[in-house]
Design brief:
By secondary structure, this protein is of the alpha/beta class. About 25% of the residues lie in helices and about 30% in strands. It has an 8-stranded mixed beta sheet, with helices on both faces. The structure holds cytidine-5'-triphosphate and calcium ion. This is Phosphopantothenoylcysteine decarboxylase.
Length: about 210
């Protein structure tokens, strides 16, 4: 099967030297790509700005912003028969309304406001308008009411599975090699596990593309 995986954060440019981003390291998405290759699948990995080596056998497309990531996902769906899409990236929800062409200067300002506008929800666009009919897997990084928010995203974004992780706990999740996840299926199935992102990735791949 050919899998599409998104990973990492996005950078939303404020000016040529500044951006808005988040703490995602990309490690979980890269671990999923590696585990999918190990399970005999083909993988196109669409990666935001991260400093991680490309797992052997993976086709990698590097992108910067949420808009770039949306376009790369759309192109990949058009170019390949994707059977399963795992959208693991921590995509920025908002982006500056305008990007300054030159570095913004502080002189003469006693306050600074940046107007933000919403980005497109890639996962929420997969069924419609992107027309994806394969197995759709989302992630939900939450700090409270993890399973409530995650199951809401499962339904609202028309996923087959959602991987929920609690990012409020120190030492797991964002930027760590370890994670604790609960995988919810639209059929009501559910399992939880903690451990290395590599081991969890193997279990997630077995569940969603096994
Ligand atoms: N996602 C996406 N495109 C976006 C925002 C989110 O594809 N513009 C995907 C993420 O990759 C993840 C899922 O949607 O698979 C859930 O992301 P999350 O940030 O947890 O949910 P949101 O719907 O953005 O809601 P909120 O941030 O308010 O919790
Ligand atoms: Ca979000």
């Amino acid at each position: 099967m050919h899998l599409l995986i998104t990973a990492g954060p996005t950078h939303e440019a404020i000016d040529p030297v500044r951006f808005i981003s988040n703490r995602s390291s990309g490690k979980m998405g890269f671990a999923l790509a590696e585990a999918a290759i190990a399970a005999g699948h083909e993988v196109t990995l669409i990666a935001g700005p991260v400093q991680l080596p490309t797992p052997e056998g993976v086709t990698r497309i590097d992108v910067t912003s949420a808009a770039d990531m949306f376009d790369a996902v759309e192109r990949t769906l058009n170019d390949h028969p994707i059977g399963c899409a795992i959208l693991c990236a921590a995509v920025a929800d908002f982006t500056p309304a305008t990007t300054a062409g030159q570095k913004i200067k502080k002189t003469g300002k006693d306050k600074m406001t940046i107007e933000l506008v919403p980005t497109k929800d890639i996962l929420g666009s997969m069924r419609d308008p992107l027309g994806f009919n394969g197995t759709l897997v989302g992630f939900a990084a939450e700090t409270t009411d993890v399973l409530t928010y995650a199951s809401d995203k499962l339904t609202r974004k028309r996923c087959d599975f959602i991987v929920a992780n609690d990012v409020s706990q120190p030492g797991i999740g964002f930027d760590s090699n370890d994670n604790a996840v609960t995988v919810l299926g639209k059929d009501g199935s559910q399992w939880s596990a903690s451990g290395s992102k590599r081991d969890l990735a193997t279990r997630v791949i077995a569940t969603v593309a096994g």
